[in-house]
Every structure is written in C-alpha cells, then in structure tokens.
Fold this sequence. Notes:
The chain is mainly α. Helices cover about 65% and strands about 0% of the residues.
Amino acid sequence: MQFLVIQRMIGLLLMIFSVTTLPPMLVSIIYRDGSLQPFLYTFAITLVAGILLWLPVKNQRRELHLRDGFLVVVMFWTVLSLFGAIPFILADHPHLSITNAVFESLSGLTTTGATVLQGLDQLPKSILYYRQQLQWLGGMGIIVLAVAIMPMLGIGGMQLYRAETPGPIKSSKLMPRITETARALWFVYLTLTVACGIGYWMAGMDAFDAVAHSFSTVSIGGFSTHDANMGYFIDKPMVEVVAIVFMFLSGVNFSLHFRAWRTRNLRNYLFDSEFKTYVALMLTACVVTTGYLYYKGLFASHHETLIHGIFQVVSIGTTTGFTTYQYHLWPDFLLVILMFTSFIGACAGSTGGGMKVIRFLLLLRQGLREIMRVIHPNAVVPIKIGGKAMPLRVVESVWGFFSAYVVAFVAIMLIMMMTGLDQVTAFSAVAATMNNLGPGLGDVALNYASLTDAAKWVLCFAMLLGRLEIFTLLVFLTPSFWRK
Length: 484
C-alpha cells in the first residue's frame, strides 16, 4: 500500500474541493442572506487541511495500484463528507449537530436525497444552493472529476475509475485514454444539466430554482429547495414533464449518450439490451401505477393521473427521489411497488442508484438458463447480452453482488429495528439509503429528522455502501485487503 501517494492524492483533492465553496459564497452575496461566513471558514479549513496533507509528500509521484484506488475512493468519500458538513455546523440557520450535518452532507454527495432539514422554504439561498451543488458534484463522482484532470495531479487514474464507476462491466472505455473518458462523461453530464435548467426555467421555475433543481435532477439526487419538493410546482404541470424527461435520460448509461452524440446515430440505444430492459421496466411500472390510480380515482382528471403517475414511477425507478404533493399518502400497494422498482434502479454507467438494470437482466437470464438446464440437462446455454456471451466471471460477480447486497440489507435493517423503528420504517429507510433513493415510508416519508443519532450513523454507512456498490466498501473492511 502506497500510503504517501494516497496522502498526496487526498490532499490535492481536498484543495480542489475547497474551491466548490466559492459559488455558494457568490449566491450569499447576491441574495444577501447573511450566510457568507460559514462558507469562508469552510473554504479556509478545507484548503489548509489539503495543503498540510499534500505539502510533506508533494514529490510522491507513482501510479496507483488497485488496492490504492479502492482506499482513495473510500477515504475520499468519507473525508469529503466530513468537510462538506462544515457549513451546516457553522451556519446559524440551520445550525445542525455533527450527526445531522454529516448525514445531510453524505446524503448530498452520494445523491441519496434523504434529508434531516425542515423548513427549507425559510433557509438562506446559499445553504439551499450548497445542498443542490453537493448532489451535482456527487452525481458522476468526485473521483471521476479528479480523473478528468489527473494529468495535472501527476497520478494515473484507471484504478480509481474502476473502483468508482457503477456497474459490473467497467473495462470498456469511451476514449483511448482514461482522462479522455472522464472528460467525455462530464461533457454529457454538463450538457444535460444546462438543458435541464433551461427546460425548468421555460416551464415556469424562477432562475434560482431552475438551476438548483437541474443539479438534483441530472445527478438523480432528489434534493429540493422547498419542503413540498416538486409538489411546490403543482400548478406548473410542465415542470413535471421536464423532470420526467431528464430523470429518464440521466438514468441511461452515459456512454450511450456520448456515442449517440459522437456518431449522430440513435441506433446505439436501440441495440443496447440494458436500455431496452430499462424502457420495458419503466413502461410496465407506469402502466401499473397509472392504472391503479385511475381505479382508485385519486385525482380529479385523467391528465393529472397520467402525469403524477408517470412522474413518480420515473422518479422512484431511477432512484431520483423527487416526490409530488402527498405522494406518501398514496395506497400502500403503489408505495411498495414503487419502492421495489428502486431496488433495480437505473442503468450502469448512469448517475442512478440501486442494483442497476444490467445486473437485474443478468440475474433474470441466469434464472431462465437454469430452467432450460432442468429441461435439457446436457445443453450448453450461454448468457448473452447484446448478442455476446457473457464471461462466467461477470455472471459470478453479479451473483456475488446480489448475495452481498441481500446480506447487508438484512443486517442493516435488523440494526435499525434495534434502535426502536417499526418494520416498515426500518425496511424503507434502508432501501432508500442503500439504493440512494431518499424518501422512505412510515416515519421517514417526509424526512429523517425524527431518527436517533445511532440510526442516522447506520444509514450513513448504508448510503456509502450503496454509492460504492457494496464491494468497494466491503473489500476495504476485509483483513486480507490490508495484508501484503
């Protein structure tokens, strides 16, 4: 383990992260909300900490090994969340405890969208902007952003990319060099963000809300600047339409977006097995949800039923976590169905959470193969994705991930129940945090403020576990990882 190289890396990244407090400062100055000081202190503390880490080891320039990459990813997400919590602790409004501040910061950076804050409409604009920015930065991963500027850091980034990028198939690159790949991803990410912001503004949001919600939409984060979440814009139906479009697009593998743009051809989408499964799952959930809403007659018109039903399916299915007015009061059947869609989540290579559609597809085809083997014991039935047979190693890794996911989920849920939560609240809270979804059911339908500090720390672990896709964090906790 190259601890000095890792220290240099963390120091550099902290110095870079300190710069992200400048936009909230500008917002504070523009709106004169009196919250400039917490961000000034955060900038100074983060920058000085980064310099102190980097300066003694500034000449340590060596390529990261695989284990180094995992360690940097886990350490940086942890350290970054701690430093990201400083403004919430120092601000007069809100003035959060350390536990609540870290929970809010980690929820933002992991794009989970679970919040402990109440009274969002009365918070300073700079604090509201800062929360949205945390999600936007976390959307594609701070590590991928660092990889994009890795030549300046003097450290190769392939191991970081493999450790941080979501999904079971991580070897394919969009461009010959990993730095070019990261830049390509961020080009797509930035383009979608700008387009989404313009769409929200044209749909009726003011400029501040349009920018803020574009951040949390494209990052599939779900934070809002209002307590009512997207229900605040209930009188502007086109806002929901814009949200549906960009949540759906952000749940697609970004490499497909890039290749479609580069080749000016949509065939990349049409021939991608994961994308077709993603569309099929969304359409099925939309039909079931809108059909049941029609049956129950919860909305006054067919148009409202259709818009609200589709919006909530795409929001929960992509693990964005936006909610409409009184969504948590919908029939339990729909709430549970929607919660289960978040377990599948969005596509690999997107900003979404959950287990990823590609894993669901591989598990499904593995199950169908086993049925065929029962009927034809001697048959050789390969599992194919996009016309190509999947290596046994990939299939094994998917089953390993699924097993680890189930074990971790059950263990964390039982711990949550030990803290005094009922089964519905515990189950939904763990599902919402491990899948990086945000809103849960029961006591956490609106926010997580009522939970004990112990429960919040457990859910912080669940958020990190989900964001790093189980293995990246679990391998860090195994004794063999630390052996030479």
